[in-house]
Amino acid sequence: MREIIKTGKTVDDAIGAALSELNITRDMVDIEVIDEGSKGFLGLLGKQAIVKIIVKDILKESAKKFLDGIINLMDIDVKYDVEERGNNILINLKGKSVGLLIGYRGETLDSLQYLTSLVVNKKNNEGIHKRVLIDAENYREKREKILINLANKIARRVKEENKSITLEPMNANERRIIHLALQDDPDIETFSEGEEPNRRVTISLK
């Protein structure tokens, strides 16, 4: 965690100098006043104020601030954990109202993830893109298992009926899961066709 010590005629001056040097705003730091300073007699021999500025984890804080705004705006009962691992920021939502943030087949969750990523990377001055991954009570893992089972089931039908089958529209991530689930099947090939948001996966015999 980055921290600096700054001096100034007043506490506010010292804080302002530190924020200016770091190029961040006051809500992104914790402030510890080491010495409030004093003006001295007739303005002479005064002591300067000394503050320690501790920079919060800016990217995590920006994600939290954005999510708090969404949750408060919707007035829903949702909590979350935020963890940073390397270049990934992992967020797990939980609570009674979490379904409202998942939406139909995870569409709301995907939108929330996309918007949070925009907010986080706008604050990111590290020069490395941070990947934001948002899940809600293991929804994505459960959905992946459902899609893998679906892919295998449809592949069996394709073989039995000797005809291609086109699935319902899916987002890019869900289509990828279907493709990966069947990529090692020697008799099956998959391909995507159509335009977003109605792009579909077709499963057929090679």
Helix-strand pattern: EHEEHEEHHEHEHEE
- Report the mean per-residue pLDDT as an integer: 90
Q: Roughly how many Å is the radius of gyration?
A: 26 Å
Corresponding CATH superfamily of the largest domain: K homology (KH) domain
Relative helix content: 40-55%
Distance between termini? 55 Å
The CATH topology name of the largest domain reads GMP Synthetase, Chain A, domain 3
Which class of secondary structure composition applies to the elements?
Answer: alpha+beta
Which strand order does the major sheet show? 1-3-2
DSSP summary, beta strand count: 9
> Any idea how many domains?
3
Main β-sheet: number of strands, strand sense, barrel status? 3 strands, antiparallel
Parts with pLDDT < 50 across at least 5 consecutive residues: none
The appropriate CATH architecture of the largest domain is 2-Layer Sandwich
Q: Write down the overall geometry.
A: elongated
Highest CATH level, the class of the largest domain: Alpha Beta
Please indicate the percent range of residues in DSSP E strands (runs of 2 or more): 25-35%
Q: Helical segment tally?
A: 6
